[in-house]
Amino acid sequence: MKHFILATLAALTLTSPAYALDPSTYQGQTPPTRPHIQQPDESALLEHSHYRNTDGNSIHSPAHTSGNQAPVGATAKCGDGSFSFSQHHRGTCSRHGGVVSWL
């Protein structure tokens, strides 16, 4: 049983994200990259605050637009009419009336 646990821990260590993103493990291939975060045009938004998501990225907080049109980078429309820029479904539009539609 002890050998099974050690083998399992070794396998998890070798497949962890830190190892997976180590360029030396790809032997001449390009390692995967995180998706580019497209920042919205601040001039199109009425609110200008940000938060740090679970990945550590700075994300624009849900915001309204003067023309009620989805701004660049918006991922969802919230119940209060604001647009979310969330990178994950969980928690999107929380405290903003929930998700009305995904963009």
SSE arrangement, N to C: HHEEEEE
First-residue to last-residue Cα separation: 49 Å
> Segments where pLDDT lies below 50 for 5+ residues?
12-26
What is the strand content?
5-15%
What general outline do the C-alpha atoms trace? globular
Q: What is the mean predicted local confidence, pLDDT? A: 77
Into which percent range does the helicity of residues fall?
A: 10-25%
The biggest beta sheet reads: 3 strands, antiparallel
Structural class by SSE content: alpha+beta
What's the number of helices?
2
Describe this structure in words.
The protein has 103 residues and is of the alpha+beta class. The longest helix is centred in the N-terminal third of the chain and has 13 residues, at 2-14. It has helices at 2-14, 17-20; strands at 50-52, 58-60, 76-78, 83-84, 99-102. It has two helices and five strands, in the order ααβββββ. Helix content is 17%, strand content 15%. The model is unreliable at 12-26 (pLDDT under 50).
